[in-house]
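Hi U.,

Before I forget, here's the chain from the pilot set. I'm dumping it here mostly so it's searchable later in email.
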Amino acid sequence: MSRSPFAYLRSGLGFCWRALDAGRRAVFNLLFLALIVALLYAIFGGGLKPLAAKTTLVLDLKGALVEQTSGNAREALVTSVSGGETHKMTQLRDVLSVLEAAAKDPSIGAAVLLTDDLQGNGLATLREVAAALDRFKASGKQVVAWGSSFDQRQYLLASHASEVYMHPMGTVLLDGFGRYRNYYRDALDKVGVTVNLLKVGTYKSAAEPFIANGPSPAAAEADAYLVNALWASYTGEVETARKLPQGQLMKDINALPDNAAKVDGDLAKLAVSTKLVDGLKTRDEIRQLMIQRGVKESEGKSFRQINFDDYLARLHPKLTGDAVGVVIAAGEISDGVAGPGSIGGESTSKLIRLAREDDKIKAVVLRVDSPGGSAFASELIRRELELTRAAGKPVVVSMGNVAASGGYWISMAADEVIADPTTITGSIGVFALLPKADKVIDKLGIHTAGTTTTWMGDANNPLRPLDPRFGQVIQSSINHIYADFTGRAAKARKTTPEKIDAVAQGRVWTGAQAKERGLVDTLGSYGDALKSAAGRAKLGADYRVVYIERETSKVDRLIDLFGGSVAQAVGAQVKLGLAGTGLPAGVAGEAARELSWLNELGASRKPFMALTHCLCEAP
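Structure:
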C-alpha cells in the first residue's frame, strides 16, 4: 500500500526536528564541557600569575557604590534594545575587600584613584571607602587621586588621597546639601485627582508633595536640622583630610564670585589656590608621574598596574569554618518577593531564616540601606530577626546611607544597632495615601453606579469620592500601626513608648543625632558591625563572612534572557505624557517617577496600604 504525500511530509519534518534537537544537544553539551575544562584549569592549572613588585592598583570606580547590585540580564537586554544605557554599579563590599587586601599585599606599591565615572553615592557609603583609603595609606602606601573635574561626592573620596590632581580645565564643585522638591497639588487639582492623606506624625512629610504646594513648617524645620548637620560633617571631614582651617570651605563658597573674578574665571587655578587640589595635570601627565614613581611596564607605554576588577578577581573568600552571615536589606520594602537590590517581605525573611538554620553561621549582620515601604513586610523581616536571636544567634544591624521608617522598623530586633554618623534614620511614622479620580471622570462625562450588599463593597473605588466612614477606619488602623511601631521601638530601645514618641512623629535624624536620642546603640562602620557580631558569637579573628543572597533558578535565568519589562513600559507611558509639557528632561523624569509611585498606590488591589516610608534619600 503506497504512502500518502502527507506521510512523507510528516517523516521529513520528524527527521528534521530530530536532527535539530540532536544538534542543539550537542552544542550545549560542548559548551558545558568547555566550561568544565575552563573551571578545572582555573583551579588546578597554575592559577593567576603573581603580581610583580611595585604594581600600582588603579581604582577606576564606575557608577554608584551600592550594597548589592540590582537588575538582571532581562532588564539589561531591554535597556540595550531600547537604546538606553545600562547603569554600572560597584559593590561597597568589593571596594573594601580590594583596599584591605591591597594594603597587606607587598606587590602593591601605591594606588591611583580615578573618580570621573563615580556617580550618586550616599555619604555613609563614601565615608566607608574614605576610611579604607586611610587604612591603605596607613600601611605606608600612597594614593594619588585624579579627576577631570570633581563633584562633591567624588571630591570627598579624593580629599583622602595623599595627593589630588585635576585637569587644567576642571572644576571642584561643592554646592552643599538639600534640594527643592516638586509639589503637585495644583497640577493634580487641574486634572481632577484628589489625594487623601491619612497619617500619624507631625514631621511625616513624605506625602506632602501630593497634597500641598510647599513644605509644612514642621517639615522645613526638620529638613534644615538634618541637612545642616550632614553638611557640617562633610565640610569637617574634607577640611581635616586636606589640612584646611575649620570653616574654610564655607568661607570659600561664600566668597566664590569674588575669588573667581580674581583668577579671571579660571576655576581650576582657583582650586589650586584654595588648596582643594595639589596641582593641575592632564591624564597623560598623571601616567608619566606614576611611571617615574613606580615601574614602567614591559611595553613601555604606561606604569606597571592592575585595575580594580582584575585585582578583585584574585581575591578568594574563605570557604570553610564558622562564619558571620550577612543579609543585605537595600532598597524599598515591598510585600512578597523582591530581587537583589530591593527588599521583599517574604524573600528577605527567607534569607534570614536560611542564615538561622545554617549551623556554620554563628551570627547575623543585617546591612540596611532602605527608606522603608510596606509596614507589613517590615514586620515580617523584624520577626525573623527576633526568631534568630531567640535561637541563640547574635544579630547586629549595620545602617548604611538610609535606615529610616520601615528601614528602622526592620532594625528593631538586634543585639546592637550600629549607624554611621551620617546615616539618615528615624522617621518613625505611618501614612496612607488614597488617590481619587472622581473629578476626572466628571470632566469626561463618565458616571459610575451600582449595587453592593454593604457600604464597604465599593468603598475603595478610585472613581468615587472617599467615604468618610472608610477614611475613619483607615485612620484608626494607621493609629494602631503607629502605636505598634513606637511600642516595638520602646521595647527594643529599653525605654517607654512616650519617650520614643517624643523623638518619633515621622522625624528623620542623622546617625549622630539618633545616638544622642537613644535610637541607635553605637556609631561605627560596617567593619565594626562584623567585628561585633563575631565577638558576640565568640568567634576567633579568622572568621568567615558569608553573604546570604537569593539564588537565581533556571526558570529565572530563562526569563532574564527572554522576558519583557512591564515596569519599563509603564514608565515609558508616563514619560510620553510629560514629553509635550516643555519640562526639562531631568525635571520630567523626576515627576514621572513620583507620579508613577502615586499611580501604583492607586492601582493596588488592597483596600489600602500602610506605609512606613520616608521618601528620603542620601544627600
